[in-house]
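task queued by scheduler; priority normal; single chain, no ligands, no partner chains; default sampling; output format set to structure tokens
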Amino acid sequence: GLEIAAMTGFIIRGATLGVPIILDGVITLAAASAAAEIKPEILGTLIAGHRSSEPASRIAINHLKLKPILDLDLRLGEGTGAVLSIPILRAACLAYERMGKLENYI
């Protein structure tokens, strides 16, 4: 309903501003699917926090061509998968930021 329409708008606006969007659960994936239909260029900012055990989640993730950070068969709600994926994303960003370049060592 209206919450999916609102999320669709938030996703489009956030992605337009370059904010990474961590998706969690069927409702956010439905909103992201709608947002991607309206503005396909946002796909690069979408992150699947986890792959839910819900069949609709798997279908939406495949449709959006996303690779989930986690696959824990969660069905908890309240953004649990997104919250669990944040430390992994932070660690990846820190590793990328602090990693030396090969040309610096040759």
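post-processing summary
- The domain at 2-104 is CATH 3.40.50.10210 (Rossmann fold).
- Strands lie at 21-23, 46-48.
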